[in-house]
Each structure stands twice: as C-alpha cells, then as structure tokens.
Amino acid sequence: MHWKRFADATNEAMALIRDTPEDPYAYALLAHVCLHMDSLDKALHWSEESLRRDPENELAWFVRANTYYTIEDWKAAMEAIKEGQRVDPYEPHYFFLHANILNKTRRYDEARGLLLKGLEISPENPLYLANLSYNEALLRNFSESKMLANKALRLDVESDMVYLYLAWSAERRNDYDDYLLMLKNAIRLDPDDKQIRQEFLEGLQKNYKFYRIMLMPSNLMKKMKPWQIFISWIVLWILFKPLMILFIVLYYTTHWVTKLLVHVKVFGWTRRR
C-alpha cells in the first residue's frame, strides 16, 4: 500500500481474509487499501465488516473517519472521529480532520486549538504544521504563518499535501509567487491528483494581476459574516447599480479570458484535459 501497488495490496488483503475470515484487522486493512484507491464505498463496506467483528477496531474507525471526510459528509465524519478518538485517543490525525471541518465554518480559533493538540502528540508532523500555517493565515497572523511554513518545509519537501496546504497558506497571505511555487511542487509530486490539478490551474489563473484585482471584493467578503455580505450587496446594488453591473461583466469576462489563456498555456489549442 505504501509503495502504491494497490492491486497487489488488495490481493494480499483478500488472501489474508480468506486465511483468517474472523480477523477484524484483515478487513480493516482491505478498507484502508480501498481508501487509498478512492474506492470509498468499498472502504466503508469493509470497515463496517471489520467493526461487525470488533466494534473497537482502531484502524476501521480511522478509515471511516477519513472516508466520510473525503466524501464531505461532515456529520458522519464527526461521529466517526468521536468514536475513533474514544478507541484511540492518541491518534493525532483526528485532530487534523476535526480542525479542517471547523475551518470550513470559519471557527478558526477552535481549529487552531485542535491542531496544536495534534502537534502535542506528533510535534514534527509536517502536514499538521502546514495546516497550522494555513490556519494562522486565516487568522491573519501572517508572520507566524510564514514561520510555520518554513518549519514544515525543513521537515519534508517530498509531500504533495504539505505543498498544497502551504499553497493555500501563501494565498491567504497574498503571497502569490509563493502560492504558485507551492502548487508547482505539489503537481510535480502527484500530477494525477484531481484536486491538485484543479488548484494548479486556478493558481495559474490567479497569476494574472488583473484577475487578482477582480478577486479583491471576494477576498474582502471572506472576512465578513453572511448577513454582512447580504446587506452590503443590497446597499451597493441600490446606490451603485450601473457600477455593479459593470463589475459583474468585467469579472466574468476576466475569469473566462484568463481561464482560456491558462488552458492554451497548459494544453495548447485543444479540448484535452
């Protein structure tokens, strides 16, 4: 599995199940392989088979938490995280997942506390440090964010996910040169990852300064609460309707023109993706 020979890993796990059909860890291993292969339905199925034989199996709960997180079923993910931490309270990755879920609802301070708890268990984990760098950038603690980014890179320069989190961190700091550099490193390490490819194309798009200027209002809105955004749009529409229409036209024009330029730059004049 760690060598990414997933077909072989699947065969080995199936052979283990045939040899020891009542061993819950064998089913959890197969579920873990399925998770790495993005066979998420199978990951849930085999982890359930493991838990049916042993409700306290640590690896099965780990797989379920990560699988539900991947499919963005936040409620199920939180339930699995809670159970996973009950059976394995010293697994730091649960803090990482929980922090990411909190960040999606702008509970940045709470997320920061969870990441620090994860780092207490695994103090030199570059992925957690990269995520904390991103979290500090969300909190606008830019110098701390940069320091943590440098520390993460000193520990690991061969992790695509570390580079991805550091790219998000750099973007939040408005450091677009570093943002694109981190994305280039991420896609170099894993050019087949769908999320990384998408982020890289968006990074190339944001490399155009005029497009970044058009993104400034949306960046400002990220700091606002939903009701503030709603009221602001109503006021601006009433007072500056012609300018608002012009801005919307310019934004979409800029978006699609820069998207076309990036497509031509990366793929040439083809429709191939």
Give me the secondary-structure topology.
Layout: H1 6-19, H2 24-36, H3 40-53, H4 58-70, H5 74-87, H6 93-104, H7 108-121, H8 126-138, H9 142-155, H10 160-172, H11 176-189, H12 194-206, H13 209-221, H14 226-239, H15 241-267
What does this structure look like?
It is a single chain. The protein is 79% helix and 0% strand. It has 15 helices and no strands. It is an all-alpha fold and 273 residues long. It folds into 3 domains: 1-73, Serine Threonine Protein Phosphatase 5, Tetratricopeptide repeat (Alpha Horseshoe), CATH 1.25.40; 92-207, Tetratricopeptide repeat domain (Serine Threonine Protein Phosphatase 5, Tetratricopeptide repeat), CATH 1.25.40.10; 208-273, no CATH class. The radius of gyration is 22 Å and the shape is elongated.
Brief overview:
The chain is mainly alpha-helical. Helix content is 79%, strand content 0%. It folds into 3 domains: 1-73, Tetratricopeptide repeat domain (Serine Threonine Protein Phosphatase 5, Tetratricopeptide repeat); 92-207, Tetratricopeptide repeat domain (Serine Threonine Protein Phosphatase 5, Tetratricopeptide repeat, Alpha Horseshoe), CATH 1.25.40; 208-273, no CATH class.
Keywords, separated by commas or semicolons:
single chain; 273 residues; mainly alpha; Serine Threonine Protein Phosphatase 5, Tetratricopeptide repeat; 3 domains; 79% helix; elongated
